[in-house]
Write a structure and sequence with these properties.
Layout: E1 2-5, E2 10-14, E3 18-25, E4 29-37, E5 93-96, E6 107-115, E7 134-142, E8 148-157, E9 162-171, E10 177-189, E11 194-200, E12 208-213, E13 217-223, E14 232-240, E15 250-255, E16 261-267, E17 273-279, E18 286-288, E19 293-295, E20 299-304, H1 308-322, E21 336-338, H2 340-343, H3 349-362, E22 366-369, H4 397-407, E23 411-416, E24 420-421, H5 426-430, E25 450-451, H6 457-471, E26 478-481, H7 503-521, E27 526-529, H8 539-542, E28 547-549, H9 556-566, E29 575-576, E30 579-580, H10 587-594, E31 600-602, H11 610-625, H12 627-632, E32 634-639, E33 647-653, E34 659-666, E35 676-677, E36 687-690, E37 696-698, H13 699-704, E38 707-708, E39 718-726
Parallel strand pairs: 21-22, 21-31, 22-23, 23-26, 26-27, 27-28, 28-29, 30-31
Antiparallel strand pairs: 1-2, 2-3, 3-4, 5-10, 6-7, 7-8, 8-9, 9-19, 9-20, 10-17, 10-18, 11-12, 11-14, 13-16, 14-15, 15-20, 16-17, 24-25, 32-33, 33-34, 34-39, 35-38, 36-37, 36-39
Helix pairs in contact: 3-4, 6-7, 9-10, 10-11
């Protein structure tokens, strides 16, 4: 619910348990007055905008002619802090006007409140299933000198503690201007006694949780790799010092964007914190002619006083039902086997059919043919961009392979890397200027490939036509979209020199446009994103694909920290997770870890022994038995590998508390073997049949006393699943 108090000139955005309050103060300055647990009214909140100035070093705005007034943009909780007009903190907005300066001074003009939520084309966004799910506030601001305008857009959900923000900047003047910086959010909190949680990593070790206290000055994360990246994820949280999984205050921030981003927290001399999130201003600028506008990506804000775990569960619910597209949002997804780790590039029709035959025996639903099916692709040195079938490898063509797969009763999936081009390819020889490059420099190369200039419509049209000719001709039920390098030598042959700063954003807009075209052409296709594993694991990719390959690392022990970190804001239904031939653990552990995700296989099943085959059959049954729990249940992180180097544990609990599934993995034999597992999220008054020992326990017993699991979790590289069913 959103309301405007005309007496106090305050906007109040309410979610079930949260309030966000904005005030209009003297001379139409817009300030943030409150963000936290829900409050009943806004009386007196305007006083929260007062913060002591740093003497004459915090200037008053031009309307003030006496130091008797204490309002200065330098220390006030500005709702959208601008550059050059007395606010010396990091700004949300900086516009270079036709006079060549970047002084920007936005003042309140008006507002609109309405049911529902706007789309922000051409960017992906969270959607509503009905207008009643949320209300939206749009606040108009203007710079009376330059004629530039900004509209701040807020959507407050009625059943989730979620507020979504973005900004639209418009050139309403008669002269051109250039945006140097445009953040999606600016939030000023009246304190700095918080810890900052971020997700750092690298290839094969993505989204590792890191927690550190705020300090005076700047702290944050960013990517300028052209993608959201393996190295930092566009998620951050500020949590109270005492916050843990089950209690304490948590503010979450997640950017719906797949390109260069920045998250920054600045703690100033008053001990307050400014939070900014949006497009990375490094190598960014955007030119606006009169009448043109620019839309920032959405940022998803979550607040709770019920701990970090509750923050995560709010994100999971939102993304499962208001972000993931298509029928596979709720419909059961096929259980697949992927050919990559089973064969890499070394396959032909008969080998793939043999994989499918074994998969059918185990009760699987789909075979996915990964890299190596096109051009002359027998290694990673060539053929990206040549999306025609290699009939020397697939005798009889793709149609014959799919027919044989379908005759077994299995569906068929295929791999593409549409945004890449090999120097050794027909496409590059015909169009060498289509790769990302700058004049007079030979581009850097990664994995023997260049990046296609997705900002160009002619490039996107060519790739779409090639993909469509294959995807429309054959019965293909799944598409894996990969992206195996970052962007260097950033430039486009079609952009003029003074607009090269638009390249990175135009590139990702081009990617979104191509993905949207493919998705619209094949709406019933299961779509999985990938970027050398989890190098582009962000909400914007989930707006096009139901799931994202979480990491190229399929070692189940290494996967634990990856999946714990990923779950900070992304649901299990989005995490691509497979059982592979990694020899570090047995197949039970591999399956138990992969079940916390989309679940699938990536190995040559012809090489399994008899015992392993029985385990796989059991895992396939478990996939179907626990599907709704693992995809849509509430996640509780019971024991974190970041806090315990020996054991970790998690559970899924049905929304109606009727069932639960807990998993414990022992990473190495504990020095202190005694271990009690306490469940979370159960109904304390229900009684649950426990399949571990056949006993019936009350929910209160399981959550407060717990189960003694010392003996079954003593062994290094072992795992245990426990299923509870309400009686």
């Amino acid at each position: 619910m959103i309301s405007f108090d005309s007496k106090n000139k305050t906007f109040k955005l309410d979610t079930p348990n949260t309030s966000y309050v904005i005030g209009v103060v003297d001379f139409d300055q817009l300030v943030n007055l409150y963000y936290g647990d829900r409050i009943a009214d806004t009386e007196g909140l305007e006083a929260r905008s007062f913060r002591p100035r740093c003497a004459s070093f915090s200037p008053l705005t031009s309307e003030y002619n006496t130091d008797a007034h204490d309002f200065s943009p330098d220390c006030a909780p500005m709702e959208y802090g601008c550059n050059g007009c007395g606010d010396f903190r990091t700004s949300a907005l900086s516009i270079r006007n036709a006079d060549g300066n970047t002084v920007t001074d936005m003042r309140y003009e008006g507002y609109r409140i309405y049911a529902g939520k706007p789309s922000i084309d051409p960017l992906p966004s969270v959607y509503l299933n009905s207008e009643s799910e949320a209300d939206t506030l749009e606040i108009d601001m203007a710079d009376k000198v330059t004629g530039m305008r900004v509209t701040l857009i807020y959507t407050a959900f009625n059943s989730l503690d979620v507020i979504i923000r973005s900004a639209r900047i418009e050139n309403a003047s008669q002269r051109p201007a250039d945006i140097d910086r445009a953040m999606s959010i600016c939030v000023d909190l009246p304190g700095m006694d918080y810890d900052l949680i971020t997700l750092y990593g690298r290839h094969c070790k993505e989204r590792s949780e890191e927690r550190r206290p705020l300090a005076h000055g700047l702290q944050g994360i960013a990517s300028k790799r052209g993608v959201s990246s393996h190295c930092q994820n566009p998620f951050a949280a500020l949590v109270s010092k005492n916050a843990d999984e089950n209690s304490g205050e948590a503010y979450g921030f997640n950017l719906v964007y797949s390109g260069n981003f920045e998250f920054c927290t600045e703690c100033d001399f008053s001990g307050t914190s400014r939070i900014l999130m949006g497009i990375n201003p490094t190598d960014f600028s955007w030119h606006l002619e009169p009448g043109e506008s620019f839309q920032t990506p959405e940022a998803v804000m979550v607040h709770t006083s019920k701990g970090i775990g509750e923050m995560s569960r709010i994100y999971h619910k939102l993304y499962n039902f208001n972000l993931v597209p298509g029928k596979y949002r709720t419909e059961k997804r096929p259980l697949l086997i992927n050919s990559w780790e089973a064969a890499f590039f070394d396959f032909d029709t008969d080998k793939l059919v043999s994989f499918a035959e074994r998969a059918k025996e185990f009760g699987m639903d789909m075979l996915v043919m990964d890299d190596g099916w096109f051009g002359k692709r027998n290694n990673d040195h060539n053929s990206l961009g040549d999306w025609f079938v290699n009939e020397d490898k697939l005798k009889g063509g793709l149609g014959e392979l799919i027919r044989r797969i379908n005759d077994l009763g299995l569906q068929f999936g295929i791999w593409y890397e549409p945004e890449m081009i090999s120097p050794d390819s027909d496409l590059f020889r015909a169009h060498p200027d289509w790769c990302v490059h700058v004049p007079n420099r030979k581009p850097c190369i990664g994995r023997y490939q260049y990046v296609l200039d997705m900002s160009r419509k002619d490039v996107r049209d060519n790739i779409f036509d090639q993909m469509y000719s294959v995807l429309s001709k054959y019965k293909i039920d799944y598409l894996k979209w990969d992206f195996n390098r970052n962007i260097s030598d950033a430039g486009s042959a079609l952009l003029p020199a003074d607009r090269q700063g638009e390249f990175f954003h135009r590139f990702i807009l081009g990617t979104y446009e191509l993905m949207g075209r493919i998705r619209d052409a094949f709406p019933d296709m299961l779509f999985e994103n990938c970027s050398g594993g989890g190098g582009r694991f962000d909400p914007a990719m989930l707006a096009y694909s139901q799931q994202i390959w979480a990491s190229d690392n399929t070692d189940p022990i290494e996967r634990l920290t990856i999946q714990f970190g990923t779950s900070m804001c992304y649901p299990a239904s989005s995490m691509g997770a497979h059982v592979s031939a990694c020899d570090r653990t047995d197949y039970r552990v591999k399956g138990d870890v992969a079940l916390w995700g989309t679940f699938g296989y990536e190995l040559d099943m012809n090489k399994l022994n008899a015992d392993e085959r029985e385990i796989v059959k059991e895992q396939v049954r478990d996939y179907h038995k626990y599907y709704n729990l693992t995809h849509f249940g509430d996640l509780y992180r019971l024991k974190s590998p970041y806090e315990d180097g020996y054991r970790c544990a998690w559970s899924f609990v049905a929304e109606d508390k009727s069932e639960a599934l807990a998993t414990v993995v022992t990473m190495r034999a504990p020095e202190v073997p005694f271990f009690i597992l306490k469940f979370k999220g159960l109904d304390p008054d229900k009684h649950y049949l426990c399949d571990f020992d056949g006993r019936v326990y009350s929910g209160s017993n399981l959550m407060n006393a717990g189960l003694n699991l010392t003996r079954p979790t003593e062994r290094t590289y072992s795992s245990l699943k426990i299923y509870l069913k309400a009686q």
